[in-house]
Amino acid sequence: MIISQNKPFEEVLAFLENSEKIIIVGCSECATVCKVGGETEVQEMKEMLEEEGKKVLGTTILSPACNLLNSRKDMKQFKEELKETDAILSLACGDGTQTVAKVAKPEVYPGSDTMFIGEIERIGQFEEACKACGECELGWTAAICPITKCAKGLVNGPCGGAKDKKCEVSNDNDCAWLLIYDKLKDLGKLENMMSMREPKNFEKGNAPRRINLRNQEKETANA
Amino acid sequence: MSLLKDVLERGEFGVTAEMAPPKGTDLSHLLECARAIKGRVHGVNVTDFQSAVLRVTSLVTCKLLKDEGLEPILQVTGRDRNRIAIQGELLGASVFGIENALGLTGDHTVVGDHPQAKPVFDLDSVGILQAATTLMSGKDMVGIELQGTPTFYLGACVTPRFDPMEAQILKMEKKIKAGAKFFQTQAIYDLDTMREFIEKTKHLDTKILAGIIPLKSAGMAKFMNNNVPGVFVPDELIERMKNTPKEERVEEGIKMAGELIRQLREEGLCDGVHIMAIGAEENVPRILDAAGL
Q: InterPro entries from the xrefs (chain B) (predicted)?
């Protein structure tokens, strides 16, 4: 899931300094789970902006905001409002906000900061799990990601910085490589850790990346 | 040929010292210390933005020390450079006649003085050693032939008291496979740590220089016990520091370091020592005097 957090309200207000009439959009998926851009938060934002003297012309929850065709369709409900609105405030993630900006003419501002791809540990508790590096390493690391869970993204084992099995970057973080070591040991696969890893190929992570399944299928068919 | 390599491979007791470049352009203190050390050590490590703190670069400082007649050991971390910069740095060092290089992962940027910086870590310590070994074969990491091939005596570091030790030794083995010929250890203060470490690594064909950091006070010892991974200062040494009058503590630390080196040598627990005087490099000759070296 994409984990996001609300921006400080003062920052949002600064974006909207010269905007009187505003439309607020949220997202039904990740931003709702993160309690950043669901029904409740969109409603709260509306009230806060109205208290600041803004006029909220409409609110909606896109489902999900990152679906271009869907967002284009959903935004049509504001056909009239969009003609007079000064700005759209998006409480979706950075991806959703950009999608909205593609389908709507007025300026779109983010009301949240997109943090990471993570796991829902329990309600309201998230932990980063994947860096979307383009070449998954989990197959030899007992399914613990060294690229994400090690602050240095090391591929050959722990650095000397761990103390009491915690990372030098923060006492809150377990040393990922010691987790990998323990688990591989349990699994009887410590040889995975002994194998020399060539430096990781970061070429696969160069942004922006694109995938086109249709083209891929065509290529497969032609092959 | 590298003096350090020559000494260690002949089986003589090797001595290296660590020097940190200054934060600023005034190298007078560094050069003063260098002149004091000259002729007493077989190599001088020059730290690479040690503790992720901005300083003069290791390469420039290595060159200046070389010009002073010392044998520099270039430290290269993966924190600040990608594989292009690391290979370039190594080639540059070779052009300057620097024959020793030490590959380190490096402390994370957040523990240094510019925590806002983007950390790199394109290569880890093993990757840096692999890169250096590849360059020494006459090619770069993508297989393109070099015009002129560098030669290095490659080293790495190891923490003798890491928990779990097996994970550290596993990585040490990888560093050897990647080209490390010698290791400098994290600071040690007791013989037992070294005895245990030597026992656990006796299957490895490498040279080990025991890390020595002279104590300056009991507070420093306690700080290291609490904050520096893998460092253990026994209580008796802390007590000894406490019982020494304040103005004599530095001298006592030097004496203690000398004693430890003497014992390590007598028991054959290492192939040499690596002295990290942390800003007081002028004391290195006195430590060596105390050790009878």
A: FAD-linked_oxidoreductase-like, Mehydrof_redctse-like
Same domain, A103 and A165: no
CA distance B206 to chain A (A): 18
Total structural domains within chain A: 2
Identify which of A151, A153, A160 has the shortest CB distance to residue B186. Answer: A160
- Nearest CA of chain B to the CA of A216: how many Å? 28
pLDDT tens digits along A142-198: 999 999 999 999 999 999 999 999 999 999 999 999 999 999 999 999 999 999 999
Interface of A with B (CB under 8 A): 151-165, 168-169, 177-178, 181, 190, 193-194, 196-199, 202
Same domain? A109 vs A163: no
Domain B3-291 falls in which CATH fold? TIM Barrel (3.20.20)
Residue A127 lies in a domain: no
pLDDT of B208 higher than 90: yes
Both A151 and A105 in one domain: the answer is no
Q: What single-letter amino acid sits at B273?
A: V
Count of beta carbons in the 10 Å neighbourhood of residue B274: 28
* SS3 assignment, position B169: helix
- Note whether B66 and B92 are within 8 A (CB): no
Kindly give the parts of chain A with pLDDT less than 70: none
Parent domain of A75: 2-115
B52 phi/psi in degrees, rounded to 5: 60, 30
